[in-house]
Design brief:
about 0% strand; mainly alpha; about 140 residues; Globin-like
């Protein structure tokens, strides 16, 4: 039975739930809301370091619901950010998440992304990033 009355919406909720559940398992967490915040914070930090073209290409492979919070608050002007260091990247995650180990979170999100997004797109994303950030990927 449909939860929303629209199969497209039900499907995106289900896919996003699978993503968050997989992230919870990767982190060993039981708190779904915290996992959602971790996913959102990491996606935002990543998004802001990608070219506008790469942002769109990665976003196209996310479930519709996840794509919504991926783009939430995005301002493409001045992107990608010129920050080149892991500490700066992790500080953005820490600022949005406000609890937990941002490096552990980034590595877990990137691990799940690597399973759910095409290998070619992950390679493109990694190539766009500075070497210190590529080290966070599996």
């Amino acid at each position: 039975m449909s939860q929303t009355g629209l199969e497209t919406f039900d499907t995106t909720v289900q896919k996003t739930n699978h993503f968050i559940n997989e992230l919870m398992a990767e982190l060993g967490w039981q708190d779904k809301h915290k996992a959602y915040l971790a996913l959102k914070a990491t996606l935002h930090a990543l998004r802001d370091r990608l070219t506008v073209e790469e942002v769109a290409q990665l976003g196209a492979q996310l479930p519709m619901l996840s794509r919504g919070f991926y783009y939430e608050g995005w301002r493409p002007a001045g992107k990608p950010l010129k920050e080149r260091h892991k500490a700066e990247f992790l500080a953005h995650i820490d600022h949005e998440l406000r609890r937990g180990d941002p490096e552990l979170v980034a590595r877990a999100v990137f691990t799940v992304l690597a399973r759910r997004v095409s290998a070619g797109e992950i390679a493109d994303v990694k190539q766009t990033l500075p070497s210190e950030l590529r080290e966070l990927w599996p």
